[in-house]
Amino acid sequence: MKNLILSISLMISGMAFSQVIIGDQTGTASNKTSVLLEFAANQNKGIILPYITEDLTAPAVNAKMEAGTIALDARNPSNARVKFYNGTSWTDLSGRDGNLGTALNIQPNTITESTTKGAIIGSSSTTANGVLVLESSTKAMVLPQVESTNDIISPAPGMMVYIKKDGAKRLAVFNGSVWSYWKP
Prior knowledge:
By secondary structure, this protein is α/β, with parallel strands linked by helices. It contains two helices and 14 strands. The strands form four sheets. Strands 3, 11, 12, 13 and 14 form a five-stranded mixed beta sheet that branches. The chain has a four-stranded mixed beta sheet with strand order 4-5-6-7, with no helix packed on it.
């Protein structure tokens, strides 16, 4: 029993500092050592951002947020917008109102979350408060990549993808009604 617990502990500690690939068995770890979290190619799926129903301008809410947070502002379901928090203020990434419709009904309705229930990738601990925290000073997350947002069947509000099509590479976020595109 001791050996089993030791083996599991060693395996978990080794995985805490390795690359995580979602949706595939192989990724780019052998040729891209800066990748911490990666999604399988050609899946026509995205990552769904958390919905926030609290007032984002309230100091108590911002005190719980970390710089780099991206979420769907769902305070008003007919005016939903994807937003980015830089540590002091929120920036609208949608540019247009979205309508969550019935999507908000399937989201958890608790206002507070336990900070002990988040998942951490890249470190054994973190001071950040989040559901999923990527903790690394040398590695990043590679968003799910698609050729076109038209290839995504029934996108969910809060979905985020990277369009990898030549000549049209950009970030895309879905606010429940429309896709908004960000190009460098």
